[in-house]
Design brief:
Blueprint (H helix, E strand, L loop, with lengths): L11 H17 L14 E6 L5 H12 L3 E6 L11 H10 L4 E6 L4 H7 L6 E7 L5 H16 L12 E5 L6 H12 L3 E5 L15 E3 L2 H6 L4 E4 L15 H8 L3 H6 L5 E3 L12 H4 L6 H20 L1 H5 L9
Parallel strand pairs: 1-2, 1-3, 3-4, 5-6, 5-8, 6-7, 8-9
Bound molecules: phosphoric acid mono(formamide)ester (CP).
């Protein structure tokens, strides 16, 4: 794997390979000594032009557990404020020895530009670009659903027939887009629930069903209910109901939580707006996988970095992903 830019172009075989390697990585995280020597001598640069808690720290933990060196770059406090371009910033960091660049950027398409412009030779991982995609979030979500549905060792298993309902601010959500492409590639049936003004205009071309009433969607008994963060900072001209109205009609409260089938899981990519799209009861309930998603994110990002930086060597080597 040269880059990881989106899930829309990821084949089922490639997606399963990442999820299966993530299972190997998760196994290594149960050991007393979690650190593997696999990426010793490699350097991973976290190039973040937007704020992040989970994704940036998770990539840092993943790289360090594979023994890579990590350089963290945040646009805040950098020479970006003096007008330095993406090209010059990336080339400056590559000159310091980057083998992989993990980039989060407010502009949709920035990771692809970095990967295809010829500015740098490092592998590029998209850590979220504008409203476009967030592929490792979708991979960790798929990993979480697969583990819950099929148990600890679900290697080789897709998500055929699994019902996933994604609720909320689909219009601004790169998480929703990456999940739609990945989950349907893996065979899941995806339903979107949103106020009509927060549904993207091109949604008729997506392989999903659209429902506007959350209670109807819950009555259809989803296996996983994924609540999205309301992105007030990106709302701009989009019409948004009052927070009270949104919460009443599209929020997951205690009553709706109770109406879900007993085996359904509740997901959220974080950060959560408690009391808006999800109540504290739902976020902290036994069926919430919010923190499990975070933990699984480290294994999935270890897999992505491993396949990016050691995958080609692995193909001609007998050493497996777990270092055995
Ligand atoms: N889910 C997610 O991308 O969270 P952060 O913005 O904290 O990285």
């Amino acid at each position: 794997m040269r880059h990881l830019l989106d899930t829309r172009t990821l084949t089922r075989a490639d997606a399963l390979r990442i999820l299966d390697v993530a299972e190997d990585m998760a196994d290594t995280q149960q050991r007393e000594v979690k650190k593997l020597p696999t990426l010793r001598g490699k350097t991973v640069v976290n190039l973040f032009f937007e704020d992040s808690t989970r994704t940036r720290i998770s990539f840092e933990a993943a790289a360090k557990r594979l023994s890579a060196d990590v350089i963290n770059f945040s646009a805040k406090g950098s020479s970006v404020s003096k007008g330095e371009s993406l090209q010059d910033t990336a080339q400056t960091l590559q000159a310091m020895g980057a083998d992989a660049v993990v980039i989060r950027h407010g502009a949709s398409g920035a990771p692809r530009t970095l990967a295809t412009s010829g500015w740098i030779t490092a592998g590029v991982v998209n850590a979220g670009d504008g409203t476009h995609e967030h592929p490792t979030q979708a991979l960790l979500d798929a990993f979480t659903i697969r583990k819950r549905r099929f148990g600890a060792d679900s290697r080789g298993q897709g998500l055929d027939g699994v019902k996933v309902t994604i609720v909320g601010d689909v219009l601004h959500s790169r998480v929703a887009r990456s999940n739609v492409w990945l989950l349907t590639t893996l065979g899941a049936r995806v339903t979107l629930v949103a106020p009509p003004t927060l549904v993207p205009q091109d949604v008729s071309a997506w392989p999903v069903e659209i429902v506007y009433d959350l209670d109807d969607a819950i009555a259809a008994e989803p296996d996983a209910l994924m609540m999205l963060r309301i992105q007030l900072e990106r709302m701009n001209a989009a019409y948004f109901p009052t927070e009270r109205e949104y919460s009443r009609r599209w929020g997951l409260d205690a009553r709706r939580l109770e109406a879900l089938p007993p085996a359904s899981i509740v997901m959220h990519p974080g950060p959560m707006n408690r009391g808006l799209e999800i109540s504290a009861e739902a976020a902290d309930s036994a069926r919430s996988t919010v923190l499990e998603q975070v933990a699984n994110g480290v294994s999935v990002r270890m897999a992505a970095l491993y396949l990016l930086l050691a995958g080609a060597e692995r193909d001609t080597d007998t050493t497996d992903a777990s270092g055995k």
